[in-house]
Amino acid sequence: RDVEIDVDDTDKVGGFVGTLYVNRENFAKLLVEEGLASVHAYSAERSGNANELNAAEQKAKEARRGMWHDWDPSKEAAENGDVDGDYAANSNGTNGDAVPTEKKKDYRDVMVTHVEETGKLKLQMIGPGTANLTELMNSFRSFHLNSANNQQLPGPPKAGDFVAAQFTEDGEWYRARIRRNDRDAKQAEVYYIDYGNAETIPYSRLRPLSQPQFSPQKLRPQAVDAVLSFLQLPTASEYLKDAIYFIEEQTAGKQLIANVDHSPSDGPIHVTLIEQSAKSLTASFNADVVSEGLAMVPRKLKAWQRAYDDVLDALRKKEAVAKEERKGMWEYGDLTED
Hints:
Residues 1-70 form the TNase-like domain. A five-stranded mixed β-barrel has the order 5-6-12-14-13. It has a five-stranded antiparallel β-sheet with strand order 10-9-8-7-11. It is an alpha+beta fold. 27% of the residues are buried. Helices cover 28% and strands 24% of the residues.
């Protein structure tokens, strides 16, 4: 059949990673709905189709289709360490559920460089990496100011290629990676690997990143994927935009402390962001987002989250106040009611 594809990336052996459309319908969604595939959470989040695919998987589970023919929701909850929020506040992990992991204290100096439309953060870890990045960027700037280095790409770029890209806002050159490529329009979507933002620019503003002193092998990409711990951001677009704007406004240009609460092997790290002068994790930017009614505390908790009882209790109190004052997403009442 004739199909359409969107190429998002390439894997480490050069295979395309992306979305396939049959009759303009996402084929991955069809497979998941029929119980012929399961959702890989990290990949789904990166593609921007997470909500659609997760809903399709839940539909297949409830209909016991395909691979879910003997699906047991209670067994899945136990395996994932998911429990109702009310229980989690009083649980000691001894009733057959997953035992809470130990509360982590892993403080790092960070700066938020970008907030995505989904609410995911891009962080730079302040330290040797950022010092090396500053040195690299000074050399990078000087290199591209030299007219002798005004060399265009030898041909159309491919998804996954590393390039030098001229950022629209300031006209400076940065290390980037090609996400999508439009040969007809002669433009590409680039992802700035050290800062986490992306944009679509013409080929004329791309150059080869073939110089060994600037390569990602010399200095790894400095933008780290992260999400704010213990928060469930709004699904309604208007409130989500308000949440993203608030996070950007509160963190812009500030050197902060991040406690890395959880670092899974296949996804973004979970962090609590606090001011340099803060004395505890309960006085955090995470809590400020909840206080503004721009996020709620999840009703179901993972095993690692249950180790943070004091933090969760403080967040629930702030959520209750935000509900009473009808702030943000609570302006028309309690979203969690039937």
